[in-house]
Amino acid sequence: MAKSSSPAPTDSPAARPRPPRQATPAPAPAAESIALVRTSSLPMLVQRELERMILAGELDVGAKLNEDTVARMLGVSRGPVREAFRALEVAGLVRLEKNRGVFVRQIGIAEADEIYELRAVLDEYAGRRATQNVEAPDVADLRSRLERMERAVGRGDLDTYHDANVAFHDRVVELAGNAKLLALYRRLVNELSLYRRATLDQSGIPSVSLEEHRGIVDCIAAGQAAAAGRRLHDHVMASRERMHRKTGSPLPAPKSRRTRRSA
């Protein structure tokens, strides 16, 4: 007669979770997770943690990043940190200056203007393509993301709203199905986040922005590709105008087009 199987005792090695490593001084939870990983992906993990800290404002805009300090903070060697710095430069979040070091990038309003203008063009294209590609579950996902933004506005939670807003637009671009577009878009968003984090406060969550997002989702759900693209373009340019109103800086005058003179 076959023996009946019995559950492994709760104190067996297989069932008992491994205790986390201890370090002195004790690192932050994210840093502890990185310190536990010793694989070829370690530079990427360091990059992601530094990216999170930069975009969350934990590392100030313009701050110098010391290789040794970052390595000790994350519990890793200097090599992965050095590789992460190079990747963050490509991502547009830091600048490497010869003989000076690595600094969190500073974005001025003139550069932010240029990013908004380029984003408007990319978002319009992405909106049209996404509308052509989406299926019912994708639309439901976009509405769920919009609801998260609405709840954040109701609580006056800028950080959650900002993250949900970025995730919403990122998902639209993902749905466009163009990897090159997505990579370029994410770099622009990273760069723009450096400026927006430095200028937004709790009053920077306008209800009109939510209405714009609702209109975008409605057009995508209805299969209106051209309308969805236009709404995304107008939404990005409206965000640019709100940035100028908030900072009290005038919108740049449109550049006049030069006409060729016949010889």
Description:
β2 (about 95) and β3 (about 100-105) form a beta hairpin. The radius of gyration is 23 Å and the shape is globular. The chain has helices at about 30-35, 40-55, 65-75, 80-90, 110-135, 135-155, 160-175, 180-200, 205-220, 225-245, and strands spanning about 65, 95, 100-105. It starts with about 30 loop residues before the first helix and ends in a 16-residue tail after the last helix. A 3-stranded antiparallel β-sheet has the order 1-3-2. α2 (about 40-55) packs across α4, α5 (about 110-135) crosses α8 (about 180-200) and α5 runs parallel beside α9 (about 205-220). The protein has about 260 residues and is mainly alpha-helical. The chain contains 10 helices and 3 strands; from the N terminus they run ααβααββαααααα. Helices cover about 65% and strands about 5% of the residues. The protein folds into 2 domains: about 30-105, Winged helix-like DNA-binding domain superfamily/Winged helix DNA-binding domain (Arc Repressor Mutant, subunit A), CATH 1.10.10.10; about 110-245, GntR ligand-binding domain-like (Four Helix Bundle (Hemerythrin (Met), subunit A)).
